[in-house]
Amino acid sequence: MGRSTDADTPTSVPRRRCVACRSSVPATELVRIAWSVEMAGPEVGRTLPGRGAWVHSVPDCLDALRPSDLARAFRRAVTTEQIAGLVARLVVHPVSGPAGDPAALPLESPATRRTGDG
Question: Could you count the other beta carbons within 10 Å of the beta carbon of residue 29?
Answer without folding.
Answer: 20
